[in-house]
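Example 3.2
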Amino acid sequence: MTATDVRGSNTPTAQSFAVTVLLRPFTDYPIVPGETRVRAVHFTELRTRIDALRAEAGLGRFTWTDPVLRVGVTQVRLVHLMELRSAVAAAYRAAGRSTPPWTDVEPVAGTTPIRAAHLMELRAAVVALE
């Protein structure tokens, strides 16, 4: 930053300083098992942050099965969780980092419920890469 004192010496001066930009926190943080209902907004927020990470790593936006998750219309499904994992794993690989471990490594549609732990570990993975 440079400033000039127009009422005094009229001499410019420079000052350097660090700026920290805090990202918007996630909705319902933390997601509490048995208390917090898994909602579309949880997935939408992760998609937005993951797409930003992918852009920073030189990757394109992920092609989501349901590009828009509509509250009360789109039922959140296991495929949505698996896409989040794939998209964040690609960002990790592009950044030269090992992909994070996942709870329920091989979930099964119709059998494996989407749990708070799944979303919290995705959030942690996103924050660790930001």
